[in-house]
């Protein structure tokens, strides 16, 4: 009887070494300190961060997660919801982050309706372009059928320096990236081009990494060891043209009631990069006005 050929061991879904270094015990405190110490180049200036991305990608949850990390308690100010298909966020809203009792951090988040693949559903691409320039007033009820017109009372004509967006952040889910339709990718590209024309820097935050990959769901420290997630980030980079070093994976707070060091570390990694990019743009605008 011939001996049976032994089966090759299944290939591990994890790399032996992470492809990006994270110091899980120290990085959180360092990044937290950087965010607390951050001062914009001009007194009274603020970094405006606009989040966009597919409906249900985790935009509102990301704002809540940042608020939670910086306030050291669970925060649910931006309403997040598990809706299927259409966007839950309907209004254009600015979120400030409290620092002390009477002060706020010098950056704000703008949350907007999610993008959808079909025409006349989800946020209108032209509305995202108007928001980038600062023309959209607070609480504007977004209308997927038509863009904000100049006659509308929510159209801001006279712009001030703080109205303009300084960094555009694409929030994109890792678990459903493969099924994002071509039409939606086209909308993301169009918004990206509009931001590039305005010299606005761009970052992508990849959410739901815990759902996309069981090894990461089990232990978030596997984030940069997962071959699957690295492949997803490379796919995003190719599809929409964002370089790999501008893509940051996070798990948002969504079901937990207590903060966790590893979740905080990834959220802060993304946030510090977003603030740095926004700060670069503020300095760029300052040089231009000289
Ligand atoms: N597992 C997991 N779920 C998440 C994560 N981020 C968000 N969610 C869940 O995904 C759903 C949608 O999240 P939202 O934050 O409402 O997404 P959104 O992009 O604001 O959605 P719209 O406003 O509808 O465009 C909610 O049920 C969240 O709890 C994450 O990182 N991991
Ligand atoms: Mg939302």
UniProtKB/TrEMBL annotation:
Record SUPFAM superfamilies: P-loop containing nucleoside triphosphate hydrolases
InterPro entries per record: P-loop_NTPase
GO biological process entries: immune response
Region (Disordered): 1-44
Biased composition (Basic and acidic residues): 17-37
PANTHER family: INTERFERON-INDUCED PROTEIN 44, INTERFERON-INDUCED PROTEIN 44-RELATED
Protein name: Interferon-induced protein 44-like
Gene (UniProt): LOC115038026
């Amino acid at each position: 009887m011939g001996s049976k050929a032994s089966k090759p061991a299944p290939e591990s879904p994890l790399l032996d070494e992470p492809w990006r270094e994270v110091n899980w015990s120290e990085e959180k405190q360092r990044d937290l300190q950087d965010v607390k110490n951050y001062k914009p180049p001009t007194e009274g200036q603020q970094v405006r961060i606009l989040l966009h991305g597919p409906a249900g990608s985790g935009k509102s949850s990301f704002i809540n997660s940042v608020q939670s990390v910086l306030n050291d308690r669970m925060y649910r100010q931006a309403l997040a919801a598990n809706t299927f298909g259409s966007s839950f966020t309907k209004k254009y809203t600015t979120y400030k982050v409290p620092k002390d009792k009477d002060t706020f951090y010098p950056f704000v988040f703008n949350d907007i309706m999610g993008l959808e693949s079909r025409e006349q559903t989800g946020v209108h691409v032209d509305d995202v372009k108007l928001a980038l320039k600062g023309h959209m007033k607070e609480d504007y009820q977004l209308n997927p059928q038509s863009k904000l017109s100049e006659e509308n009372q929510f159209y801001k004509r006279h712009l001030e320096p703080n109205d303009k967006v300084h960094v555009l952040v694409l929030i994109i889910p890792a678990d459903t990236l493969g099924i994002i339709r071509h039409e939606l990718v086209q909308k993301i590209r169009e918004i990206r081009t509009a931001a590039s024309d305005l010299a606005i820097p761009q970052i992508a935050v990849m959410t739901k990494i815990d759902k996309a990959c069981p090894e990461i769901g089990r232990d978030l420290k596997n984030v940069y060891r997962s071959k699957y997630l690295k492949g997803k980030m490379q796919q995003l980079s190719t599809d929409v043209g964002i370089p790999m070093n501008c893509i940051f994976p996070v798990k948002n707070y969504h079901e937990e009631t207590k903060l966790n060091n590893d979740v905080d570390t990834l959220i802060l990694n993304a946030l510090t990069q977003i603030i740095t990019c926004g700060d670069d743009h503020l300095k760029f605008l300052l040089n231009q006005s000289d």
